[in-house]
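Before the break, one more example. Copy the sequence into your notebook; we will annotate it together after we see the structure.
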Amino acid sequence: MTDLSPYGPWAVIAGGSEGVGAEFARELAGSGVNLVLVARTPGPLESTAARLRELGVEVRTVATDLTAPGAIGEITAATADVEVGLLVYNAGANTHGRAFTRGTLDGFASVIDLNITAMLALVHHYAVPMRERGRGGILLVGSLAGYVGTSTEGVYGGVKAFGRIFAEGLWAELREYGVDVLELVLGVTRTPAMERAGLNFDVPGMHVSEPVDVAREGLVALPHGPVHVVSGNEAIVEMRSSADRARLVAGTEKVMRLLVPHD
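Here is what the structure looks like once it is written out:
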């Protein structure tokens, strides 16, 4: 097990109740790092927190929608009396996966608020004291969607591309101050959220990652930012760097129609 205690004494995990977020929490708890878990649904959040307390760490919970007014204030208030050495932002779901002309501006705005606005607010709040202390870590969970646009992921892919470029810039800014920054790029992962979205995990040739493996790999890669692609997805990233964008987008669209149910 990787020693994660240098990222303590407290870590904040946004999207920490299930899937990859809960596995990040378990790994950190195993190194004695106390946790503040943030998620929208209280039930799974409290269930995960109870299991983690059995490992001997303190766990605080904040049940809130990160896009709601006052949500950032709730989280920062919950950590006002502790030193946060690590922020994991694992809350960037595609909450409005629709073709742009069939969706609503409010729906797409929620995707932007979750993946950009709330993320920036939390990173700024915790990164400033990390820089001043000369240690800490910021781990942003990204997606292969950030490398190509498709008909139902034009906005989501755009915000994920922003997240990757932002992580690179933040890494360049903070590395000389002893603060590690990483965007962990996920592919298809067998999480409850992806299962609820109806993803077809049986597409021939599709690499499917397990949450525990993703979390462990991400935490090992954290000191070596700025971007790490989860193992098994490297060839996809290379392919999506092609200059022939029309061919790439058309081909990816075919795969997405097999992977994700469409109207």
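The longest helix spans residues 105-133. The longest strand covers residues 136-143. Try to locate both features in your own notes.
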